[in-house]
Amino acid sequence: MKLTKKIELAMTALILVTTPFLTNFSQTQIVAAAKSSKVAAKGKITLIYDAHLYNKYGHKIKNKNKYLPYADDDVNGYKYIPEFNADVMQYYGTKIINGQKFYNIGSDCYISMADIKEVNGKNSKKGKLVLNQKSAVYTKAGNKSSYTLPKRAIVKYQGAVKEAKSKPKYYYSKYYKSDDNEHYFYLPLTKIKGKNYYAIGQNRYIKANNVTSLDGYPLIYNGVTTATVLETTATQTIKNQKTKRILKKGQKIKVDLAVKPWAEDFEGYIFRLHDYPNEYIYENYISLRNYLPTSDYLAQVCSFVKSKTSTNVKLYGVTGNPIGVSFNTAELSAFNVDGLFYIWNKAENKAELYYHLLSRSFNRKDLNNNDGTQLSSPTDDEKTNENSLSTTEKIISVNSFVKASDVNFYDGIKLSPLNTPLEAEQKQKIATDNDKAQLQKAFDSEQQNITGSSRHAGLTLGYDYALVNAAVVLRSTKATLAQVDEALWLLETTKTQIKTLYFEDFS
Fold this sequence. Notes:
S-layer protein C-terminal domain-containing protein
C-alpha cells in the first residue's frame, strides 16, 4: 500500500479520521454528481489518500439509503472516496465546521481540508505535515510544552525535503516519466531521547510517527506499525487461503508491509502480520496507524537476479559445465532463481557459487547460443506438444544455473547457499544404490502426478521435468552424491512451487 519553519501556534486544526480502503469507482460518476449540483463549481481538488465524506454538521456520513454513486462504504458502512481514482473533483464552496475547513463536493457532502492535496492545481500541502493523531509538542530537551495539536492538524515544518537513493525510515515516493523509476523523498529527522521527531518551529518538535502526510504525499513508515482490527476475521495466506488464526474486532496487531496479492480480480492490498510473516489480513479489515511500504506478490515469493553487464549470461549444468546456451540480456536482464548452490567444477578443481533458475522462468526468445546466434525457432510440434522435447532439453529447461559472479541480487527473497564449498567437493563421490534410496522413494511416490490448474501449467510441467531429471540420475552409474542431493531438492521444490506460486503469464 504506496502510498510521501515555523509553527503558527494559533493555527486552525483540521480533524478527520481516514482509513486506507482501496476499491474501484467510476470517475464519470463523480462528474455526473457534480453536474447535478445547482451551484456553479468554484474549482477542482485532488486527494492525498482515501477521504471520508462528512455532512454539514461534521459527522461522517453513514446512510445506506442515500445514493452516492461516487463513494464506497468502508467496513463500518461510512462513505468514503477512494483516492487513487479521484484524480480531480469539483467543489462548490468551503465551510468552517466546528472550527475546521471543509470543501463542499455536492449532494450535501464535504471533504476535510486535511485530506486534500491540490486546490485548483496548487499543492495546498507544500511545506506542511498532516497529523494522524493528537500530538504533543516537545522541546529539544524532550520535554512536553503546553501545546497539543489535534488529530488531522495541518502544520508547517522546518527544514528542506531531500531525495534518497534507498527507502529511509520515513519517506514519500513518486515516479518520474523521464525514467519510470520510483524516487524517495524525506524530511530530515531530529533524534530526541532515541525517538524521531520533526521540527515545526523554534524549539518545537512533534513525533514523526504521528505524521500521516508530507508535502501532500502519504508518509510511508519503513518499519513495523500497529493496526486495529475493524471486524472479526481470519488471516489468510499470500494466495488468499484462510488460516485458522482469528483476529477479533478491536484487537491491536503489528503489520510491516502492504502486498499486492496474486488474484487477478483483487483490488487493494493485504497486510503482512509482523509476528506471523506467512499470514496476511485484507486492508478493509484494519485501520492503520501509519502507511507502509508496498510490494507485489512476486517479490514476496520469488528471488530475482540481474546481469552485471549487458553481456549475455551463460547457463551451466549441475556439474558446473556450460550447456551452450546464454540469456539474451537485451531481452531479459532480470530473471527468477530459486536456489543457491556451491558446485564443484572438476576441470577448475574448485567450488563456485551458482543460482538455480526457477523452472520455466524464461522463454526461447530470451536465450541465445553461446556464440551469440539465436536459438532455432521451435517446430510446430514443439509449439503444441511439450513431449516432443528430448530428455536433455527437458533437463536443461528445469535444471539450469547461472554463476553468482555473473549477476547481482535484484529483488525478492535473498537466498542463502544450501551447501558449503567443502560439501560440494566431498560429494563428488559416485553414488551407490543405497545413496539413491531416498531419491528413489521420492520418485516412486511422486508418480501420482500433481494436477495443476491451467494457470499453473508451467509449474506443473517443471515438476514433470524434475521427475525426468530424477529418473536420469537414478539410472546413471556415474551420478555423484551431489547430483542425487540436487535431484531430490529439485523434485521437492518444484512440487512445492505448484502449491505456492502463481504466474499469470505461465502456460
